[in-house]
Amino acid sequence: xxxxxxxxxxxxxxxxxxxxxxxxxxxxxxxxxxxxxxxxxxxxxxxxxxxxxxxxxxxxxxxxxxxxxxxxxxxxxxxxxxxxxxxxxxxxxxxxxxxxxxxxxxxxxxxxxxxxxxxxxxxxxxxxxxxxxxxxxxxxxxxxxxxxxxxxxxxxxxxxxxxxxxxxxxxxxxxxxxxxxxxxxxxxxxxxxxxxxxxxxxxxxxxxxxxxxxxxxxxxxxxxx
Length: 225
Hints:
This protein is α+β, with helices and mostly antiparallel strands. It has helices spanning 41-54, 64-84, 139-145, 151-156, 193-196, 201-208, 214-224, and strands at residues 21-25, 29-36, 92-93, 95-101, 111-117, 121-126, 129-132, 176-181, 187-191. Strand 6 and strand 7 form a beta hairpin.
């Protein structure tokens, strides 16, 4: 029988007056959204995204294609909300999410369906390894991919906050979505750039490797940031 435990933590930080990050976590669906936009619009976009995900019926994102379609619908909802209120025009958000897909017959391991838009991240700690599953949709990631800067230089680059994809900008958004098997002992970390801009990947990996409750790990990651 599959048992999943999770922990969640977020903090406004020392820069902005409001927290533009939002999350959703259940037994089968997990998401982080990082809003952007003037006034409180970023906060609205990220909150709307996680609320809509939380309202999905169980099993709604059992395939990568289904997850992409759900994200497209959320994208449309953000655009409609932005056009309805002047203060919210131009609001947008990242989204990184994963959903558990259990096999009814139990013959194969369960899977995770993952989806990503923007520069929030999904990491996986598995069997002594630690790697980033998602690919940042950002200006600095393009520089890293082209070999013009290193990953460490990207963390402090003055244009590191420029994203190349987000929900709420265009009628259709390119969504990365894929399926991976889930094994006992796997540990996933979903986070916004509020963590990765402040904490080196090696430090995140070291905490993920500790055999402690997920809530403790989540709290310590926020404390580090």
